[in-house]
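Q: what sequence does this backbone want?
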C-alpha cells in the first residue's frame, strides 16, 4: 500500500466504512432539509414525503428532490446544511473510524499513538447544474472544476494526507467522479494561479501545461470506499452530468501534529444571527424576575 501510494500519489481502500453511515447521513440530510424549510420559512412547491416513510437507499431521489428545491428557492441556506452536517455525531463517526484513521497514519509514516488533526471536514453536495438553474438566476456562482493541489487549500506549513469518499450513493463518472494526475505529487508545489471569484471560494489552479504532462485517471467509487491522496497530488472533481441526482462526497484532511510547522488554527465560530452581547441583552430583557 505505502509503496503504491508513494509511487502513484493515491490509495483506494475498498469497503472500509459501514453502509450504516450512509443510511444515517441520508436521514440526517433529509431531517435537516425538512427542518430548514420550516425554520427558514421556505415555500416548497410540493409536499415532501414524510421522513418516517422513507426507505434507504430506495428513496435517495426524495432527498435529491428536496435539496434541489431548497437550492433553487434559497440557495444560501444550503450553507447551513453543510455546517450542521460536518459537526453532527454521525459525521464524526466517519472521522472517528479507526480503520480510516489507521491508514491515514500509516500513509503519513506515523505511529499508531501519533495524533492527527482532522481539518476542513465536509460533505460536499454537488447538484446537476441544469437542475439548479433558478439558483444561478438568484446569484449563485457556478463552481469551477479546476485542477488543484490540496496543500494550497489548507493551513500554512503543514503535512497531510487527504481523503475523498462517496457518501449516500456511489459516484459514477456521470456523477462527476474525482480525477487525478497520476504521479503528480512527486515534484512539490506547481506553478498555479490565484483566482478570486465573487460569491464563491477562491480557486488556486495549477497551470494547464503542467496538468497536460500527466496521465489522468477518473476514479468512480462505491459507498464504503475511501480514496487517500497525497497533499501535492493534482486532482479535481468532475462535473455532475446526471439530470437530477446529487453527488455527495465526504472530504477531510488528516494533518500530522508532530510536523515541525504544525500550528493549530484558531477555532473561530461566528454566529449567523446576533452577537454574544446582543444575545446577552436579549436574554436579560426577557428575564421575568
Ligand atoms: Fe481538493
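A:
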Amino acid at each position: 500500500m505505502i509503496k503504491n501510494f508513494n509511487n502513484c500519489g493515491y490509495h483506494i481502500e475498498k469497503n472500509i466504512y459501514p453502509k450504516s453511515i450512509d443510511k444515517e447521513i441520508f436521514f440526517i440530510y433529509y431531517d435537516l432539509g425538512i427542518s430548514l424549510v420550516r425554520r427558514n420559512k421556505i415555500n416548497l412547491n410540493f409536499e415532501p414525503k414524510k421522513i418516517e416513510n422513507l426507505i434507504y437507499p430506495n428513496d435517495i431521489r426524495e432527498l435529491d428532490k428536496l435539496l434541489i428545491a431548497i437550492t433553487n428557492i434559497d440557495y444560501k441556506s444550503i450553507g447551513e446544511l453543510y455546517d450542521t452536517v460536518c459537526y453532527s455525531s454521525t459525521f464524526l463517526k466517519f472521522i472517528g473510524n479507526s480503520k480510516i484513521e489507521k491508514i491515514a497514519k500509516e500513509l503519513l509514516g506515523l505511529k499508531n499513538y501519533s495524533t492527527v488533526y482532522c481539518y476542513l471536514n465536509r460533505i460536499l453536495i454537488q447538484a446537476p447544474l441544469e437542475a439548479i438553474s433558478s439558483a444561478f438566476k438568484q446569484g449563485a456562482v457556478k463552481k469551477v472544476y479546476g485542477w488543484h493541489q490540496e496543500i494550497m487549500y489548507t493551513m500554512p506549513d503543514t503535512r497531510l494526507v487527504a481523503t475523498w469518499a462517496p457518501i449516500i450513493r456511489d459516484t459514477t463518472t456521470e456523477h462527476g467522479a474525482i480525477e487525478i494526475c497520476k504521479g503528480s505529487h512527486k515534484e512539490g508545489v506547481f506553478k498555479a494561479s490565484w483566482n478570486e471569484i465573487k460569491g464563491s471560494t477562491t480557486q488556486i489552479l495549477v497551470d494547464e501545461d503542467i496538468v497536460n504532462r500527466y496521465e489522468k485517471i477518473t476514479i468512480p467509487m462505491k459507498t464504503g470506499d475511501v480514496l487517500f491522496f497525497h497533499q501535492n497530488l493534482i486532482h479535481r472533481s468532475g462535473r455532475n452530468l446526471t439530470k437530477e441526482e446529487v453527488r455527495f462526497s465526504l472530504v477531510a484532511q488528516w494533518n500530522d501534529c508532530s510536523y515541525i510547522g504544525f500550528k493549530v488554527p484558531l477555532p473561530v465560530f461566528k454566529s449567523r444571527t446576533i452577537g454574544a452581547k446582543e444575545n446577552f441583552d436579549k436574554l436579560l430583557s426577557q428575564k421575568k424576575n
